[in-house]
Amino acid sequence: MFLNRNEVAPNFQALSAFRILFSGYLLVEFARLLPYYADFYAPSGIMPLVALASNDGIAGIAIMLPAVRWADAVDLGAIVPVVLPLSLVALAIGFRTRWACGIAFVLESYLFWRNPYTASGAEILARLLLLWCLFLPINRYWSVDAALDPLPRRRDWPALPFVAIRLQIASLYFFSALFKLEGAPWLKGYALLWTLQDTVFAATPAGLFFVEHAPAVLKMVNYLVIAFQLSFPYMIYSPWRNELTRTIAIGCSAVMHLSFIVFLNIGGFPYVCLIMLLLLTPDAWFDRALATRRRSLGGMTIYYEPGCIFCEKVARLLREFLLVPEVRVLPASVDGMTLKLLTENRSWVVVDPLGKVHLKWNAVAYVLRQCPITVPLGWLTDLPRLRLSMARFYEHIGAHRTALGTVTSIFLPFRSDSPPGGMALTLNGTLAAIALVCNFVSLDQWQVGHVQQEIHSANNTGIRSGLEQFFATAQVRQNWMLFSPVPTHWKWRFGFKAIDALGNRTDISKAMPFVAADDGNSIRLSSSYWASYFRRFQYFSESGWSALGAFMCRALASAEKPATAVEVVIERAPITDSPVAPVDIGTSVDRRLPCE
């Protein structure tokens, strides 16, 4: 089945805009992760393979562990810091887009399975989006692939991949609401009052202000969030006044995620959700937003030397990234006067919408000035002092255009992406169905008064345990508890001390790479990845604790502060100054870990 009716037309421009911003998000997130990369994923870090293997409560780890062992054996982790950013850059510019997306998905999956404790909802959602994008034409606009594609941009594409990714987005909102309906804090209206006081994942100045001065507002928003998340799928796909209801849904969702940025400390989740909303944006919105620009530039024509493949490709690339699709790119042979002009000046010819002719580097500078991002470069390179140098550079490129054409024929050939075939569509549909079933099954993973971690299935038995293993192995396991049914509502206390041979204890918090600040009363962790790791302390195996101790001891040794042991204290106490009694009594651990 293909999408070809206007009311269900695929949103190719929205997909391409999503590709660019999503790639940028993943690059930024990896840059945030990079300072701790070895700490999280190296054999000498907090999760050596022996510790990973002992975490049998992680759904799917027993099945995925051989693949992780193989990846470590071939030293895949060593190339990830190079290959993953390169694949994301290729994805952003749309170069061999499907391959770039596939490589990014494989490497992101490796990082997830190499240390699941650092993963939060942001990493799980990002990995799922990469998976669904493998089946979608995310390169139809603003990409190298689109520039070199001779076929029409808006050609047919199977409907199933669009259904799969939209089902994923709807599931995130809808099932999150269902989880909230099963929690007393949400049903009684005090969930946000609790959440905003959590000292690791919230407790921002704005959040604490509302807790103190506007608890009634928080109670009202508590119910509005549930109602909005339940109605989100209908508003997006409503057959009645769809443009209006879709606008309301996307706008309210954007406000909700922006509020997460202001009131919570949950890493990249609100950012990836904001970018994800682009996938629900109709192309008609892009057409209206870009209509003025397309009208003003649509009359432009770029003429290249007939038979010069390199010239044609450069013209197409400039059109793709700096101009608009309506600009015509033609061989000069279609117009006798233009061909004469090109031949006499040994230059490509750019005719602007007013009919003015631009030649050589002046034409390049003119094209650069048409894009808001490259306007400064266009003006700079056309300054009188630089014109001679840029003219020489243009002549140098022109003199080597034949050799450059040979190079581009290898690395930048004209090519078109084919829609996924029958087997790929079957895989896509099967994974989408499994993901939907997973969301339904996940609804029964909670018990009131018990906060479960999203990657654990230790309490599951029998059929449920088998299903959890299956979902995880299929790479689509998910649940969208998102601070529900019982929201995070803890006052956290961390303590890290060194113990010498005489038994004396010394605070070593400031020497630990996972501590950003220690004011003597509280410790602030250095990133959301460390917060994800430490909030799962209840599930650390003995090997996991030993790995953490060894890691801390090595950090002390490198800081020339050797110790015979380290002490780790983590306390998670419920908010006690809330007008509502806490559900849980809290948890604490005090571990002495020897330095060998």
What does it look like?
There is one protein chain. With 596 residues, this protein is α+β, with helices and mostly antiparallel strands. Among the domains are: 291-411, Glutaredoxin (3-Layer(aba) Sandwich), CATH 3.40.30; 490-594, no CATH class. Helices cover 55% and strands 9% of the residues. Strands 2-1-3-4 form a 4-stranded mixed beta sheet, with helices on both faces. A 4-stranded antiparallel beta sheet has the order 6-5-9-10, with helices on one face. It has a two-stranded antiparallel ribbon with strand order 7-8. Strand 1, helix 18 (309-322) and strand 2 form a beta-alpha-beta unit. Helix 1 runs antiparallel to helix 5 (76-93), helix 18 packs across helix 23 and helix 24 (422-442) packs across helix 25. The relative contact order is 0.13.
Write a concise synopsis of the structure shown.
This protein has 596 residues and is α+β, with helices and mostly antiparallel strands. The chain has 27 helices and ten strands. Helices cover 55% and strands 9% of the residues.
Task: List the main descriptive attributes of the protein structure presented here.
596 residues, four-stranded mixed β-sheet, alpha+beta, single chain, disordered N terminus, 55% helix, four-stranded antiparallel β-sheet, Glutaredoxin
